[in-house]
Amino acid sequence: MTTLKCRGLISSRKATRLASLCACAAIANSALAIDLVGTALVPADALDKSGLTNTIGDRIPHNRLGSFGSAIDFTGKDDLYIAADDRGPGDGATAFRPRTQTFRILIRPGSTQPVSIDLIATTLLTDERGGDLWGYTGGYDPRDQTCGVRFDAEGLRVSPRGTWYISDEYGPWIDEFDSTGKRIRRFDVPPIFGVKNPGTPEEELPPANTAGRQPNRGFEGLALTPDGRTLVAILQSPLIQDDALSDKNERVGMNIRMLAIDIQSGKTRQHVYQLSSARNGVNEILAVSDSTFIVLERDGKEGDKARHRSLYLIDLAGATDVSTIAALPGGALPETIRPVRKRELLNFMDPKFGLVGSQMPEKIEGLTFGPNLFGGRRSLVVTSDNDFRIEQPTRVWVFAVGADELMLETSEAGGKVPQR
Questions:
Q1: pLDDT digits (tens, 9 = 90+) for 294-313
Q2: Domains contained in the chain, CATH given
Q3: Burial letters 303-313, b for 16+ CB under 10 A, else e
Q4: CA 158 – CA 43 distance, rounded (Å)
Q5: DSSP E strands, 299-360
Q6: What is the pTM of this model?
Q7: Partners of 117 in the beta sheet?
Q8: For residues 36 and 51, what is the distance between their CA atoms, to the nearest angstrom?
Q9: Are 314 and 335 in contact (CB under 8 A)?
Q10: How far is the C-alpha of 168 from the C-alpha of 151, rounded, in Å?
């Protein structure tokens, strides 16, 4: 087992507070706010266990442990997590082998090292025939896109059977892989999400394509409902036909489609998530219940320039199924279309967490619940994607979230729902 040189970070004041909270089981969940338990840093020059020995791009070791923060999910046992690398360095310009990383993450609130992370294994992803998948943008088949070998993993969830559901930005696709990394299933995604003319990011924009996902803006997030029956994928940005872009191909759309897939039957439905700003995008979705989810929404800035990066609690109950609607408006929706309800759950920019400033990463992308913490709170694990930048470590943040924080306010129609 390779031990990474990671450091848990927490202030002495917060450590004392968390320790006292853990020692007092009588404290009610309703009295607990969301706290940052700690941070682990994975060095940018750390290596994985893929066994690859060549270099790619600007002489980057092919076995560099770089972008595993794109997606992460807790296996539910032995403190083990599965994380997914995206398409590699250079925004798809390199011949990178997509892969998953298996980590052991220990969460010990109030200790001198509240969060620690160890790399256990690396698994390269392959197609159904065992052929290599590649992060390279040009690895598509113009005659049949389903036969292409390019793959950009952005969302990952572990099934009850131990297989991996992974969402891809290129297709966009949703695939199932076994624990050896071999693809065993591809779900049928409605054609409304795909582009007619694939190519480089510049070649996929209008006028070459007037419909489908924007370049590098496909299924960025993936959730699996607790009952194990439904996958919910969410785009990073609106579809082109949903009034997503201006005449200059600037992003102006606000309405993002979510795709829910019944795993057994393959039946689908679509709902609308409205961005807080057209400057933002969505990076992950995590199931809280079979109808409520956490969505990670952020801007594209880093360091002192970052302005918006939050988690939102949403509910699909009562939201309109827009599967039969060919195109959505970019801004306000008609009364006949009801989007998912949302309210802010956690603001990463809140000064109380101590994350703002020059070290704030641009790409906060991974999100999963970890083990329950003493006192009834849940651990929430958040990861960043460093894009293989040598000056940027990967960050693993762990928050403690009380059960009441995940409860949704009551609507006029009854039940618990988040408010927009």
A1: 999 999 999 999 999 999 99
A2: 2-406 (2.115.10)
A3: eeebebbbbbb
A4: 26
A5: 309-315, 341-347
A6: 0.90
A7: 105
A8: 35
A9: no
A10: 6
